[in-house]
Each structure stands twice: as structure tokens, then as C-alpha cells.
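Appendix C reproduces, verbatim, an entry submitted by the partner laboratory led by Prof. M.T., so that reviewers can inspect both the input and the predicted structure.
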Amino acid sequence: MSSTPTPIQPTAPGRRRGASGIVYAWLRGEILSGRLKPGQALSESEIALKLAVSRTPVREAIIALESEGLLTVRPQVGTEVAPIDVEAVADGQFVREAIECRTVALAARRVTPADARDLRAMLDRQARAASRGDRAAFMPLDDELHRRFCEMAGRPRVWRAVENVKSQLDRVRFLSLEDPAWLETIHRQHGTIVDRVLEGDGDGAAKAMSTHLNAVFDSIATIARASPAYFRAAVAPA
């Protein structure tokens, strides 16, 4: 396990309170970010010591994360980080494409000068993170842009629907960003989407978003060649 907790965590789909909530949020963030790799064994006692809690909330968090497909618990053997479920990745990508291609098309019809300034500023922040190779900073900026498109479309609450289905997808996204070239690629794709939105080209924005979201399958192929054990099964994009 990584030696110290990090302040940057992927967004959890629900709100959990108390010690078990702290453990859940930290463990989930470590798994989604790739700091805990698929197949890596976990120690309840080590986690409890690191986070200064008893083992009971650790067990509660593990049960919750097992139900999400992020941990594998084997009685009398132990707990380990589950492999990435590529069928769940495909499901998450399917939902994102259905929602986000629609939202960028709507955003292109409703864009204002203030929106244009916000989008350009977001791209600038992404460019700075990409130039540093800072994937921990880039990922929240990535989500910020996608969430902003939902807001521009007048559908801010649909972002929660996206959050609820993208945990396995986020694992691939974080692992892909270990290659610095992917940061530049994603930033460039974001720039194309923003250009189409600001031009009022809804169809073009939707097409660019579809291309961007489907790039996850290229990431899977690349990561699987180096670390096939990270994945539960193979899947081809629809």
C-alpha cells in the first residue's frame, strides 16, 4: 500500500459517515487511482493502523467495496484488490456516451460568453497539469470539464448518474495516465470537444465526445499488453 494518504481522491458515489466512511473513501480512492493495483493483497490491521481506526470500520468498508466489485474477499485466505471488470468498463462507457453526447450537443446550443471563458480556463489548467505530467491533478480537472458540460446543458444532476457507473472506468483512466502521452492526448481531445461546443456545432461536439469516450478501449488494450492480470476478461467496444 502507498505509504501516506493523498488529499486527491476520486469521487465516491455515496456519502458514508464515521470511521467506516473514512476508510471507505480512502480505500476507494487508492483503488480507483491505481495506487492499489489489481491483485494486491490488503491487511485489515495495516489499514486500521494507518488510518487510526479499529478493525471493525475497516471490515465494514471492505464489505461495501466488495459489493462494488473493487475488492475480492476470500474467506480464510484474505482480501485483495479485484481485477478490473472490463464488462463494467464497457457498461460505464455506454452510459457515459448516451448521456454526455447528448449533453454536449445541448451545451453547444446554449453556450454563453461566460461559458466560453470557463471552458478555456479549464483547458488551460489541464494543459499546465499535462505539461507537468501530473495525473493526480489532471483527473479532477477532467471530471470538472465533463461536469461543466452537464451544467451548460441545463442538466447538472445527470452528472451523479455518470459518477454512479464509472468506478471501473476510472480505474482504466488512472492507469492509462501513467503514460504521459495519454495526458496530452486527452487534453487534445477535450480541446476538440470545446471547440465544437463554442462553434455551436452540436453534432460535431457529440461526435468528438464519442471518440473521446471510446478511447478507453485503446487504453485497455495498451495496459493489458503490459499487465494482463489486471483485467477480469476481454471485451470489444460495441
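The chain has two domains: 18-81, 86-227. Additional entries are available on request from the coordinating office.
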